[in-house]
Amino acid sequence: MKFSQKSEADYLTCDPLSGGDYGGMGYIAHVNVKGLIELAEQDDDAKDNIAHCGMNDWSLRTCVEDHRETPPALIVAEGGYSSITAYVHPDWEEGVEFIEALEQYPVFDDEALSEREMELQDEAWESYVRSDLMDHVLDSIEDDDRAADVEEYLEANDPFLIEKFQGACEVHNIYPDHETDGGIHYRDLELIGETIAEDALAETDRSPEGASSRAVRDGLILPLGLEVTS
After folding, report:
1. What domain range is 44 assigned to?
2. What's the CA gap between 230 and 222, in Å, rounded?
3. In sequence order, what E strands does 50-99 have?
4. What is the CA radius of gyration of the chain?
5. Count of structural domains, the chain
């Protein structure tokens, strides 16, 4: 296919193909643009016709002018603060259909979006959620010695902390709020911390009663009043 010569004004785009940290559709746009690039790379007519430029009108115009002889099927403009916009040549039918689909529903691939949101949650955990959560857990324990025991235990047992965090979120019906800039926010981290503190205190209880309670929980001994019958 030979793409006809077009000015930058003739290229097509839509809101779900534009976004960044401080505007547009943020990480959703990145997921959509990635899907569009993959579509172009699988298309024999478009795979060698992908161009990149800066995130401003001058860069876009220059890109179009520089490719007058062979107009790109897809132009991807990128700039600061993760800003991105994709432009589709109207002769690229698959790209036009992609845009039409986004105008009906703004997400190209729900599974890809879900994967990206999970990545963002993992990034948020490492960035601030874990440290903030630990602060709330320890702040809810009045005894300094017990707080020190819990801190030592949790620092050495990240799987326990993650499991209890996820469980407390479910119990209290607290789920991450995804901002379009990719930020993740959890409501009531203090409440989650208090819930985890209770479990961590029981887990680190060195008293005979604490050891017995854990043994019953783990099925190592029977609760008082129960007998083994054959």
Report:
1. 8-108
2. 15
3. 50-54, 74-78, 84-88
4. 27
5. 2
Output the average pLDDT for the chain: 88
Nearest CA to 85 out of 138, 150, 20 is that of 20
Tell me: do 153 and 199 sit in the same domain: yes
Listed as own residue / partner, the contacts of 31-34 with beta carbons closer than 8 Å and 24 or more positions apart are: 31/107, 31/108, 31/109, 31/112, 31/113, 31/116, 32/86, 32/102, 32/106, 32/107, 32/108, 33/76, 33/84, 33/85, 33/86, 34/112
Task: Find, among 156, 155, 160, 158, the residue nearest to 138 by Cα.
Answer: 155
Query: Which has the closest alpha carbon to 3: 91, 66, 96?
Result: 91
Shared domain for 154 and 99, answered yes or no, is no
pLDDT at residue number 17:
96
Question: If 0-12 CB within 10 Å is exposed, 13-18 middle and 19+ buried, where does residue 189 land?
Answer: buried
Question: Is the domain of 204 the same as that of 125?
Answer: yes
Residues 49 and 125 in one domain: no
Return the structure tokens found at 164.
């209890």
H or E element in which residue 177 lies: strand 177-178
The model's pTM is: 0.80
How does pLDDT run across 99-124, given as a tens digit for each residue?
Answer: 999 999 999 999 999 999 999 999 99
pLDDT tens column, 158-205:
999 999 999 999 999 999 998 877 788 888 999 999 999 999 999 998
